[in-house]
């Protein structure tokens, strides 16, 4: 076979492989092997492929194969981990969890936990009803960094007792220089259900609120 026909055969094989690869936008293990085989079949017997160059291409093929196998193994590991996480999440049903959130249920009183990233010279908690109206403002003074909480007696700013139900709260805090500190509000409740969406595990709290499993700060109680 002359050099012209060898070049033509290689180009034909390359074009066919490129057409296949065009569907996936990447060259896979089989595509690489096809190109290498076509190159060997089309080489000029009087001027064969340089052995060093051929060894380098075999090494590249081996690398592609190993990367493909690693990718498959990682995919399988991710699927196994997701399955294990879902199984473990089901054990949380009936447990009390503390999660990131600002919704509380008033039933006589309500506890509103939150965390501060640093010491605060002044902290206040604002409580809002279901319509978003401000019903209570509680100045709490200085507080240290870490976990803190405010226990609301269920009365508004005028001393009136409010109806039981769900309320939202916000925490405002500043440091000694008057700079705002971002507090993280927390909420707690009993896990009543588990759901999965787009490989994300969600917990249903008290038959109403849904939170991601990764937002859980603490777990306690339950069977």
What does this structure look like?
It is a single chain. This protein has 223 residues and is of the alpha+beta class. It folds into 2 domains: 3-90; 96-220, Sandwich (Immunoglobulin-like). 34% of the residues lie in helices and 37% in strands. The chain is built from 3 helices and 12 strands, in the order H-H-H-E-E-E-E-E-E-E-E-E-E-E-E. Strands 1, 3, 6, 9, 10, 11 and 12 form a 7-stranded antiparallel β-sheet that branches. Strands 2, 4, 5, 7 and 8 form a 5-stranded antiparallel β-sheet that branches. The longest helix is centred in the N-terminal third of the chain and has 40 residues, at 51-90. It is elongated, with a radius of gyration of 32 Å. It starts with a helix and ends with a strand.
Short characterization:
This protein is of the alpha+beta class and 223 residues long. It is built from 3 helices and 12 strands, in the order H-H-H-E-E-E-E-E-E-E-E-E-E-E-E.
List keywords for this structure.
223 residues, alpha+beta, Immunoglobulin-like, 2 domains, seven-stranded antiparallel β-sheet, five-stranded antiparallel β-sheet, 3 helices, 34% helix, elongated
CATH class of the largest domain: Mainly Beta
- Continuous helix count: 3
The CATH architecture of the largest domain: Sandwich
* CATH-defined fold name of the largest domain: Immunoglobulin-like
What average pLDDT do the residues reach? 79
- Please report the total strand number as a whole number: 12
Structural class: alpha+beta
Shape: elongated
Beta-strand percent range: 35-45%
The domain tally reads: 2
Q: Helices and strands, in N-to-C order? A: HHHEEEEEEEEEEEE
């Amino acid at each position: 076979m002359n050099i012209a026909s060898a070049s033509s055969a290689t180009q034909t094989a390359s074009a066919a492989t490129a057409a296949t690869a065009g569907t996936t936008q990447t060259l896979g293990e089989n595509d690489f092997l096809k190109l290498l085989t076509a190159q060997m079949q089309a080489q000029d017997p009087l001027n064969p492929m340089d052995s060093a160059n051929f060894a380098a291409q075999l090494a590249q093929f081996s690398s592609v194969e190993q990367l493909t196998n690693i990718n498959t193994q990682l995919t399988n590991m991710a699927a196994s981990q997701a399955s294990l996480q879902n199984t473990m999440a089901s054990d949380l049903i009936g447990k009390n969890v503390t999660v990131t959130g600002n919704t509380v249920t008033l039933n006589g009183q309500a506890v509103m936990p939150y965390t501060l990233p640093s010491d605060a010279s002044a902290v206040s908690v604002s409580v809002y009803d279901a319509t978003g109206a401000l019903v209570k403002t509680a100045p709490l003074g200085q507080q240290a960094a870490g976990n803190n909480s405010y226990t609301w007696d269920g009365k508004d700013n005028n001393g009136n007792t409010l109806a039981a139900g769900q309320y939202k709260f916000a925490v405002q805090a500043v440091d000694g220089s008057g700079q705002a500190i971002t507090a993280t509000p927390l909420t707690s409740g009993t896990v009543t259900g588990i759901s999965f969406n787009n490989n994300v595990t969600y917990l249903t709290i008290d038959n109403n609120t849904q939170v991601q499993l990764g937002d859980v700060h603490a777990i306690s109680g339950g069977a």
